[in-house]
Design brief:
The protein contains one helix and 14 strands; from the N terminus they run αββββββββββββββ. It has 239 residues and is mainly β. The strands form two sheets. Strands 1, 3, 4, 6, 9, 13 and 14 form a seven-stranded mixed beta sheet that branches. β3 and β4 form a beta hairpin. The longest helix is centred in the first third of the chain and has 20 residues.
Length: 239
Amino acid sequence: MRTSPSLLGPGLARRSLEELKRFAKIAIKQEGLTVPQTPYQLMDLTDPSTIETCKTMSDADIGGFSKVSLDHIPQSATESAHTRFHGSISTELPTNRPHIQRTGYAAWRNHDRRATIFGKSLWDVDPYNFLALRVKSDGRKYFVNIQTETIVPTDLHQHRLYARRPGEWETVLIKWSDFVRTNHGVVVEPQMEMLRQKVRTIGVGLIDRVPGPFDLAIGRIWATNNPDGQQAGEDFVVD
């Protein structure tokens, strides 16, 4: 068997070097032996190239009529750069697909991350207590979705994205231990602890099935041990 040329390209070398640098930083700071103090950046949604690593989903994929977009918004005089998750929810059913009985959802997540010479690229957030998101919400019922390298690929760990100040930028913290295991939107029993050493994808979905527009701005997503969240301008460990 010959190795695919795409796996030997400069992209693999760059990703592998970045992973090696991250391992070196952990070793130098001895963060494998102590509680990490520096936040661990998972997704920088102020960077326009991040959108290229993401995908959107909605009931339109099965014939529904909801609309979803994920757009980069450059920095302005009043706001920092960010990504805008927006569109409209429709609960109308497709007339030509009688087996479809439920619509009214939209979501996005990152694609599976590309491999390095160390193997599959997965986030290890086990040393951290919280997931943090910098958002500006419209107040709708969004959920954060986490997918791990599990034996049931359709399992998701979900938690409500509780925004305290709709219309304003804020940092929302969620304990990793508070996520709930679901499958196709239904809570799965028995509950199992999230495999935090092997996180594959992170995303946000809207499943309130309330017809009408939605608009959620997202700046960054990171793991942290700081219960006060992350303030702009502080350093991140970058994967």
